[in-house]
Design brief:
1% strand; 280 residues; Farnesyl Diphosphate Synthase; 14 helices; transferase; 77% helix; metal-binding; globular; Polyprenyl synthetase family protein; prenyltransferase activity
């Protein structure tokens, strides 16, 4: 765990450094409120661990990891506006703290800083751009044409959550100069982890305590959002089993990757377990 914390510290330090350079002061304050208010940093950790698994170093992947975290945070700002959620990570959401206009500008600022980190590598830029297209389609689908069955829900989960997880892992493989098969296989692993993560997130929204979760619960039902427990007839336990199945498929994909660093690979395997067992 100590090695894992060192990797996380690399992300936190570089993230703070990037935020420190944001101008003007008002935007700096708003971006800082969003990006440095906590979070599990799951996606950047995937980037670093994927890179190390296939022979790169944590340092090689740190900027890409920070970049994908900034993209993720930018999407959360917009999610909270759409959902009218006033709480994020146990603190005030960006729009509730600063207003709708400044929150949208904050999201733009986060994306700008992110793409500055990807810009020197065309493959990295392409991977993130593709993920953002998928994310945008997912968000639009959720607002205008909600899924009506489990298959359509799974497509939405892949687009909304799986796409950024996929990008996170592929960025790590790209940072390690991996071959296309390895990039794709690590991407499949992470996409399925992301889907499992989303299913579990939906279940927690339905059954968890908001204080323990660090954000409001019951939103999916109140806003008639396409949660797995709203769209399908699955019970929370059955939905958890679906998440477990996706995690198992993620593990199957990861086992196809030749590991230069078995310890890093073991952490990725552990993550696939964590996303279906987490309580927040």
């Amino acid at each position: 765990m100590e090695l894992l914390e060192r990797r996380r510290a690399l992300i936190e330090e570089r993230l703070a450094e990037i935020i420190d350079g944001v101008d003007p002061e008002t935007l700096n304050e708003e971006v800082r409120h969003v990006a440095l208010s906590g979070g599990k940093r799951v996606r950047p950790m995937v980037t670093i661990l994927a890179c190390e698994t296939v022979g790169g170093t944590a340092t090689d992947a740190t900027d890409f990891g920070v970049g994908i975290e900034l993209v993720h945070n930018a999407s959360l700002v917009i999610d909270d506006i759409i959902d009218r959620s006033e709480l994020r990570r146990g603190t005030t959401s960006a729009w509730a703290e600063f207003g709708h206009g400044p929150a949208i500008v904050t999201s733009d600022g986060l994306l700008g800083e992110a793409f500055a980190l990807f810009s020197a590598n065309p493959d990295a830029t392409r991977v993130v751009a593709e993920a953002m297209v998928e994310l945008g389609v997912g968000e639009a689908t959720e607002l205008t044409s909600q899924p009506e069955n489990e298959a359509e829900y799974m497509t939405l989960a892949r687009r909304k959550t799986g796409s950024l997880f996929r990008a996170a892992a592929e960025l790590g493989a790209i940072a390690a100069d991996s071959d296309p098969f390895t990039v794709e296989t690590l991407g499949e692993y992470a996409e399925r982890v992301g889907i499992a993560f989303q299913i579990r997130d939906d279940v927690l929204d339905a059954v968890a305590d908001s204080n323990e979760l660090g954000k409001p619960t019951g939103h999916d039902a109140a806003l008639k959002r396409p949660s797995v427990v709203q769209v399908t007839d699955l019970t929370p336990d059955e939905a958890n089993r679906r998440a477990r199945a996706e995690a198992d498929r993620a593990i199957d994909a990861l086992e196809q990757v030749d590991a230069a660093d078995p310890e890093a690979k073991a952490y990725l395997l552990e993550l696939a377990e964590f996303v279906v067992e987490r309580e927040r």
